[in-house]
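Here's my example:
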Amino acid sequence: MNNNHKFNYKWKLSDSFPAPEINYHGSTVFSTFACGGGSSMGYKLAGYDVLGYNEIDPKMARDYDVNLNPKLRYVEDIRKFKLRNDFPDELYNLDILDGSPPCSSFSMAGNREKDWGKEKKFREGQAKQTLDDLFFDFINLAEKLQPKIVLAENVKGILFGKAIGYVKKIYQELDNAGYYVQHWLLNASTMGVPQRRERVFFIALRKDLAAQFMYQKDLFTIAPLLKLEFNEPEILYKEIENKTTNYIIGKCTENSIEWYNKANPGESFAKNHPTGNYFNLIKVHPDFVLNTITASSGSGWSGLYHYNEPRHIYVEDVISGGTFPIDYNYLNNKPNYIIGISVPPIMIAQIAHQIYEQWLKYIKK
Protein backbone atom coordinates (compact mmCIF):
# COMPACT_ATOMS: atom_id res chain seq x y z
CA MET A 1 0.00 0.00 0.00
CA ASN A 2 1.39 3.39 -1.06
CA ASN A 3 1.74 5.80 1.85
CA ASN A 4 0.54 8.60 -0.44
CA HIS A 5 -3.02 7.27 -0.20
CA LYS A 6 -5.34 8.67 2.46
CA PHE A 7 -7.37 5.45 2.73
CA ASN A 8 -6.25 1.83 2.49
CA TYR A 9 -8.12 -0.12 -0.19
CA LYS A 10 -7.58 -3.33 1.80
CA TRP A 11 -9.54 -3.00 5.00
CA LYS A 12 -11.95 -4.89 7.24
CA LEU A 13 -15.39 -4.10 8.58
CA SER A 14 -14.14 -5.55 11.81
CA ASP A 15 -11.59 -2.74 11.97
CA SER A 16 -12.89 0.16 13.99
CA PHE A 17 -14.69 2.95 12.13
CA PRO A 18 -13.62 5.51 11.11
CA ALA A 19 -10.35 4.98 9.24
CA PRO A 20 -7.31 5.43 11.54
CA GLU A 21 -6.33 8.54 9.55
CA ILE A 22 -9.70 10.23 10.16
CA ASN A 23 -11.14 11.44 13.45
CA TYR A 24 -14.75 10.58 14.25
CA HIS A 25 -16.79 13.77 14.10
CA GLY A 26 -20.25 12.20 14.09
CA SER A 27 -21.86 14.23 11.30
CA THR A 28 -25.02 12.36 10.37
CA VAL A 29 -25.92 10.71 7.07
CA PHE A 30 -28.95 8.84 5.76
CA SER A 31 -28.57 6.82 2.56
CA THR A 32 -31.19 6.16 -0.12
CA PHE A 33 -30.89 3.64 -2.97
CA ALA A 34 -28.41 2.17 -0.52
CA CYS A 35 -27.81 -1.26 -2.13
CA GLY A 36 -25.34 -3.21 -0.02
CA GLY A 37 -23.92 -0.14 1.71
CA GLY A 38 -21.02 0.94 -0.52
CA SER A 39 -21.54 4.65 0.03
CA SER A 40 -22.48 4.17 3.69
CA MET A 41 -19.18 2.42 4.37
CA GLY A 42 -17.39 5.33 2.74
CA TYR A 43 -19.06 7.83 5.05
CA LYS A 44 -18.19 5.68 8.06
CA LEU A 45 -14.55 5.55 6.98
CA ALA A 46 -14.61 9.36 6.81
CA GLY A 47 -15.85 9.75 10.40
CA TYR A 48 -19.62 10.06 9.86
CA ASP A 49 -22.50 8.50 11.79
CA VAL A 50 -24.65 6.69 9.21
CA LEU A 51 -28.11 6.50 10.75
CA GLY A 52 -29.65 4.10 8.26
CA TYR A 53 -31.00 3.60 4.79
CA ASN A 54 -33.85 3.24 2.32
CA GLU A 55 -33.61 0.42 -0.25
CA ILE A 56 -36.27 -1.29 -2.35
CA ASP A 57 -34.56 -4.66 -2.84
CA PRO A 58 -34.91 -7.02 0.16
CA LYS A 59 -31.80 -9.00 -0.91
CA MET A 60 -29.68 -5.87 -0.91
CA ALA A 61 -31.22 -4.77 2.39
CA ARG A 62 -30.22 -8.06 4.03
CA ASP A 63 -26.61 -7.51 2.98
CA TYR A 64 -26.72 -3.98 4.37
CA ASP A 65 -28.22 -5.14 7.67
CA VAL A 66 -25.76 -7.98 8.21
CA ASN A 67 -22.71 -5.86 7.46
CA LEU A 68 -23.64 -2.43 8.86
CA ASN A 69 -26.30 -3.07 11.53
CA PRO A 70 -28.16 0.23 10.94
CA LYS A 71 -30.32 2.02 13.47
CA LEU A 72 -32.97 2.98 10.87
CA ARG A 73 -34.04 0.74 8.00
CA TYR A 74 -36.78 1.30 5.44
CA VAL A 75 -37.10 -1.48 2.84
CA GLU A 76 -39.56 0.08 0.43
CA ASP A 77 -39.95 2.08 -2.76
CA ILE A 78 -38.68 5.65 -2.38
CA ARG A 79 -41.97 6.83 -3.90
CA LYS A 80 -43.70 5.42 -0.82
CA PHE A 81 -40.90 6.34 1.57
CA LYS A 82 -40.94 10.04 0.68
CA LEU A 83 -44.65 10.26 1.64
CA ARG A 84 -44.12 9.03 5.20
CA ASN A 85 -45.19 11.27 8.07
CA ASP A 86 -43.55 9.22 10.81
CA PHE A 87 -39.88 10.07 10.31
CA PRO A 88 -37.86 10.36 13.53
CA ASP A 89 -36.48 13.79 14.42
CA GLU A 90 -32.98 12.66 13.43
CA LEU A 91 -33.99 12.62 9.78
CA TYR A 92 -35.12 16.25 9.97
CA ASN A 93 -31.70 17.25 11.32
CA LEU A 94 -29.40 15.45 8.88
CA ASP A 95 -26.03 16.72 7.84
CA ILE A 96 -26.09 14.76 4.55
CA LEU A 97 -28.84 13.03 2.60
CA ASP A 98 -27.11 10.59 0.27
CA GLY A 99 -28.45 8.78 -2.78
CA SER A 100 -27.51 6.89 -5.92
CA PRO A 101 -30.70 6.84 -8.01
CA PRO A 102 -30.67 3.96 -10.54
CA CYS A 103 -28.76 5.18 -13.56
CA SER A 104 -29.09 2.56 -16.32
CA SER A 105 -31.30 4.93 -18.33
CA PHE A 106 -28.34 7.27 -18.77
CA SER A 107 -25.55 4.73 -19.19
CA MET A 108 -23.54 5.06 -22.38
CA ALA A 109 -23.66 1.25 -22.63
CA GLY A 110 -27.46 1.06 -22.36
CA ASN A 111 -30.45 2.00 -24.52
CA ARG A 112 -30.49 5.57 -23.17
CA GLU A 113 -33.28 7.61 -24.86
CA LYS A 114 -35.16 4.44 -25.90
CA ASP A 115 -35.73 3.57 -22.24
CA TRP A 116 -36.58 7.04 -20.94
CA GLY A 117 -40.09 7.26 -19.51
CA LYS A 118 -40.53 3.46 -19.49
CA GLU A 119 -41.26 1.49 -16.37
CA LYS A 120 -38.67 -1.23 -15.75
CA LYS A 121 -38.33 -3.99 -13.20
CA PHE A 122 -34.57 -4.23 -12.91
CA ARG A 123 -34.29 -6.85 -10.16
CA GLU A 124 -36.48 -9.70 -8.95
CA GLY A 125 -38.92 -8.73 -6.25
CA GLN A 126 -38.94 -5.03 -7.08
CA ALA A 127 -41.83 -2.93 -8.27
CA LYS A 128 -41.75 -1.50 -11.77
CA GLN A 129 -40.33 2.01 -11.76
CA THR A 130 -39.67 4.78 -14.25
CA LEU A 131 -35.98 4.86 -13.46
CA ASP A 132 -35.20 8.30 -14.86
CA ASP A 133 -37.82 9.86 -12.56
CA LEU A 134 -36.38 8.43 -9.34
CA PHE A 135 -33.82 11.22 -9.08
CA PHE A 136 -36.70 13.67 -8.68
CA ASP A 137 -38.35 11.50 -6.01
CA PHE A 138 -35.01 11.76 -4.19
CA ILE A 139 -35.13 15.56 -4.52
CA ASN A 140 -38.71 15.53 -3.17
CA LEU A 141 -37.39 13.73 -0.11
CA ALA A 142 -34.60 16.28 0.28
CA GLU A 143 -37.10 19.11 0.12
CA LYS A 144 -39.11 17.45 2.88
CA LEU A 145 -36.20 16.63 5.20
CA GLN A 146 -34.07 19.73 4.47
CA PRO A 147 -30.65 18.23 5.25
CA LYS A 148 -27.71 20.61 5.28
CA ILE A 149 -26.19 18.89 2.24
CA VAL A 150 -27.55 16.67 -0.50
CA LEU A 151 -25.19 14.33 -2.35
CA ALA A 152 -26.29 12.24 -5.33
CA GLU A 153 -24.19 10.00 -7.58
CA ASN A 154 -24.85 8.96 -11.17
CA VAL A 155 -23.17 7.66 -14.33
CA LYS A 156 -21.18 10.04 -16.51
CA GLY A 157 -23.62 9.42 -19.38
CA ILE A 158 -26.03 11.83 -17.73
CA LEU A 159 -23.77 14.66 -18.93
CA PHE A 160 -23.98 13.75 -22.62
CA GLY A 161 -26.46 14.13 -25.44
CA LYS A 162 -30.11 14.69 -24.66
CA ALA A 163 -29.56 13.57 -21.05
CA ILE A 164 -28.15 17.02 -20.27
CA GLY A 165 -31.79 18.12 -20.13
CA TYR A 166 -32.15 15.99 -17.01
CA VAL A 167 -29.16 17.74 -15.48
CA LYS A 168 -30.81 21.11 -16.05
CA LYS A 169 -33.98 19.83 -14.42
CA ILE A 170 -31.98 18.45 -11.45
CA TYR A 171 -30.47 21.91 -10.96
CA GLN A 172 -33.88 23.54 -11.24
CA GLU A 173 -35.58 21.17 -8.80
CA LEU A 174 -32.82 21.44 -6.20
CA ASP A 175 -32.92 25.21 -6.53
CA ASN A 176 -36.69 25.09 -5.92
CA ALA A 177 -36.05 22.85 -2.89
CA GLY A 178 -33.76 25.49 -1.35
CA TYR A 179 -30.28 24.41 -2.45
CA TYR A 180 -27.31 25.62 -4.44
CA VAL A 181 -26.05 22.69 -6.49
CA GLN A 182 -22.91 21.87 -8.47
CA HIS A 183 -21.68 18.69 -10.11
CA TRP A 184 -18.29 17.03 -10.56
CA LEU A 185 -17.17 14.26 -12.91
CA LEU A 186 -14.62 12.28 -10.90
CA ASN A 187 -12.46 9.28 -11.71
CA ALA A 188 -11.96 6.82 -8.88
CA SER A 189 -8.45 5.96 -10.10
CA THR A 190 -7.25 9.42 -8.98
CA MET A 191 -8.76 8.94 -5.52
CA GLY A 192 -6.87 5.91 -4.22
CA VAL A 193 -9.25 3.39 -5.79
CA PRO A 194 -7.59 0.64 -7.91
CA GLN A 195 -10.30 0.88 -10.58
CA ARG A 196 -11.04 3.19 -13.49
CA ARG A 197 -14.56 4.29 -12.65
CA GLU A 198 -15.97 7.69 -13.67
CA ARG A 199 -19.00 8.96 -11.82
CA VAL A 200 -20.89 12.24 -11.59
CA PHE A 201 -21.58 13.68 -8.15
CA PHE A 202 -24.22 16.34 -7.56
CA ILE A 203 -23.51 18.13 -4.28
CA ALA A 204 -25.97 20.72 -2.97
CA LEU A 205 -25.72 23.03 0.03
CA ARG A 206 -28.81 24.48 1.70
CA LYS A 207 -29.08 28.16 0.80
CA ASP A 208 -29.42 29.45 4.35
CA LEU A 209 -26.00 27.94 5.20
CA ALA A 210 -24.12 29.00 2.09
CA ALA A 211 -23.28 32.68 2.63
CA GLN A 212 -19.82 32.08 4.12
CA PHE A 213 -18.77 29.80 1.25
CA MET A 214 -19.94 31.69 -1.85
CA TYR A 215 -17.57 32.55 -4.71
CA GLN A 216 -17.83 33.78 -8.30
CA LYS A 217 -17.90 30.49 -10.23
CA ASP A 218 -18.08 32.15 -13.64
CA LEU A 219 -19.30 35.40 -15.20
CA PHE A 220 -22.94 34.58 -14.48
CA THR A 221 -22.85 32.25 -11.48
CA ILE A 222 -21.97 32.39 -7.82
CA ALA A 223 -21.87 29.13 -5.89
CA PRO A 224 -20.56 27.68 -2.61
CA LEU A 225 -16.85 26.90 -2.96
CA LEU A 226 -15.96 23.22 -2.68
CA LYS A 227 -12.67 21.96 -4.07
CA LEU A 228 -12.68 18.32 -5.08
CA GLU A 229 -9.27 17.76 -6.60
CA PHE A 230 -7.77 14.32 -6.10
CA ASN A 231 -4.40 13.41 -7.52
CA GLU A 232 -3.37 10.30 -5.63
CA PRO A 233 -0.98 7.91 -7.42
CA GLU A 234 -2.65 5.27 -9.57
CA ILE A 235 -2.83 1.73 -8.20
CA LEU A 236 -2.10 -0.65 -11.08
CA TYR A 237 -3.71 -4.06 -11.54
CA LYS A 238 -0.42 -5.86 -10.89
CA GLU A 239 -0.33 -4.24 -7.45
CA ILE A 240 -3.68 -5.73 -6.43
CA GLU A 241 -3.59 -8.99 -8.39
CA ASN A 242 -4.23 -12.01 -6.21
CA LYS A 243 -1.75 -14.76 -7.04
CA THR A 244 -2.56 -17.24 -4.33
CA THR A 245 -6.01 -18.46 -5.38
CA ASN A 246 -5.79 -21.82 -7.09
CA TYR A 247 -9.34 -22.21 -8.36
CA ILE A 248 -10.98 -20.83 -11.48
CA ILE A 249 -14.15 -18.78 -11.13
CA GLY A 250 -15.00 -18.98 -14.81
CA LYS A 251 -13.11 -19.73 -18.00
CA CYS A 252 -13.66 -18.32 -21.45
CA THR A 253 -16.39 -20.16 -23.33
CA GLU A 254 -15.69 -22.01 -26.56
CA ASN A 255 -17.33 -19.11 -28.42
CA SER A 256 -15.16 -16.42 -26.86
CA ILE A 257 -11.79 -18.12 -26.47
CA GLU A 258 -10.73 -17.19 -30.03
CA TRP A 259 -11.35 -13.52 -29.35
CA TYR A 260 -9.63 -13.68 -25.97
CA ASN A 261 -6.54 -15.08 -27.68
CA LYS A 262 -6.58 -12.31 -30.30
CA ALA A 263 -7.02 -9.47 -27.80
CA ASN A 264 -3.97 -7.75 -26.37
CA PRO A 265 -3.90 -6.88 -22.65
CA GLY A 266 -6.01 -3.76 -22.14
CA GLU A 267 -8.31 -4.51 -25.11
CA SER A 268 -11.92 -5.58 -25.47
CA PHE A 269 -12.50 -8.92 -27.18
CA ALA A 270 -14.64 -6.96 -29.65
CA LYS A 271 -11.65 -5.21 -31.23
CA ASN A 272 -10.95 -8.16 -33.52
CA HIS A 273 -14.46 -9.55 -33.82
CA PRO A 274 -15.97 -8.93 -37.30
CA THR A 275 -19.28 -7.69 -35.88
CA GLY A 276 -17.98 -6.22 -32.61
CA ASN A 277 -19.36 -8.91 -30.31
CA TYR A 278 -18.02 -9.36 -26.76
CA PHE A 279 -17.67 -5.60 -26.30
CA ASN A 280 -18.02 -5.91 -22.52
CA LEU A 281 -15.36 -8.61 -22.20
CA ILE A 282 -11.95 -7.10 -21.57
CA LYS A 283 -8.50 -8.57 -21.12
CA VAL A 284 -6.98 -6.54 -18.31
CA HIS A 285 -3.49 -5.06 -18.50
CA PRO A 286 -1.15 -5.60 -15.54
CA ASP A 287 0.40 -2.13 -15.96
CA PHE A 288 -2.95 -0.30 -16.17
CA VAL A 289 -5.51 0.49 -13.49
CA LEU A 290 -8.26 -2.15 -13.46
CA ASN A 291 -11.14 -1.43 -15.86
CA THR A 292 -14.57 -0.51 -14.53
CA ILE A 293 -16.14 -3.39 -12.62
CA THR A 294 -19.58 -4.14 -14.03
CA ALA A 295 -22.48 -5.75 -12.24
CA SER A 296 -23.26 -8.45 -14.75
CA SER A 297 -22.02 -10.60 -17.57
CA GLY A 298 -23.14 -13.87 -19.10
CA SER A 299 -21.40 -15.87 -16.38
CA GLY A 300 -22.69 -13.76 -13.52
CA TRP A 301 -19.14 -12.58 -12.82
CA SER A 302 -17.12 -9.60 -13.93
CA GLY A 303 -16.44 -9.26 -17.66
CA LEU A 304 -12.77 -8.67 -16.82
CA TYR A 305 -10.40 -11.42 -17.94
CA HIS A 306 -6.85 -12.15 -16.89
CA TYR A 307 -4.06 -10.90 -19.14
CA ASN A 308 -2.27 -14.26 -19.33
CA GLU A 309 -4.89 -16.93 -18.62
CA PRO A 310 -8.30 -17.36 -20.34
CA ARG A 311 -10.30 -16.83 -17.16
CA HIS A 312 -12.04 -14.14 -15.18
CA ILE A 313 -9.91 -12.22 -12.74
CA TYR A 314 -10.30 -13.62 -9.25
CA VAL A 315 -13.03 -12.41 -6.97
CA GLU A 316 -10.36 -11.10 -4.56
CA ASP A 317 -9.22 -8.74 -7.33
CA VAL A 318 -12.78 -7.50 -7.82
CA ILE A 319 -13.09 -6.83 -4.08
CA SER A 320 -9.80 -4.92 -4.02
CA GLY A 321 -10.75 -2.94 -7.12
CA GLY A 322 -14.11 -2.03 -5.59
CA THR A 323 -12.50 -1.14 -2.22
CA PHE A 324 -15.04 -3.29 -0.39
CA PRO A 325 -13.89 -4.67 2.98
CA ILE A 326 -12.28 -8.07 2.70
CA ASP A 327 -14.58 -9.49 5.39
CA TYR A 328 -17.84 -8.19 3.83
CA ASN A 329 -20.57 -10.85 3.91
CA TYR A 330 -22.27 -11.07 0.48
CA LEU A 331 -24.80 -13.69 1.66
CA ASN A 332 -26.43 -15.03 -1.52
CA ASN A 333 -25.35 -12.20 -3.82
CA LYS A 334 -22.33 -12.45 -6.08
CA PRO A 335 -19.61 -9.98 -5.06
CA ASN A 336 -19.21 -8.51 -8.53
CA TYR A 337 -22.94 -7.70 -8.67
CA ILE A 338 -22.95 -5.73 -5.41
CA ILE A 339 -19.59 -4.10 -6.15
CA GLY A 340 -20.58 -3.32 -9.74
CA ILE A 341 -23.68 -1.37 -8.71
CA SER A 342 -22.04 0.34 -5.74
CA VAL A 343 -19.99 3.49 -5.37
CA PRO A 344 -16.52 2.39 -4.19
CA PRO A 345 -16.46 3.15 -0.44
CA ILE A 346 -13.12 4.94 -0.69
CA MET A 347 -14.45 7.17 -3.47
CA ILE A 348 -17.22 8.37 -1.13
CA ALA A 349 -14.83 8.56 1.82
CA GLN A 350 -12.60 11.00 -0.09
CA ILE A 351 -15.52 13.25 -1.05
CA ALA A 352 -17.15 13.06 2.39
CA HIS A 353 -13.87 13.97 4.09
CA GLN A 354 -13.57 17.11 1.94
CA ILE A 355 -17.18 18.08 2.57
CA TYR A 356 -16.55 17.91 6.30
CA GLU A 357 -13.23 19.76 6.16
CA GLN A 358 -14.47 22.54 3.85
CA TRP A 359 -18.12 22.94 4.90
CA LEU A 360 -19.48 20.99 7.84
CA LYS A 361 -16.62 21.75 10.20
CA TYR A 362 -17.50 25.43 9.97
CA ILE A 363 -21.28 25.06 9.80
CA LYS A 364 -21.31 22.98 12.98
CA LYS A 365 -19.25 25.42 15.07
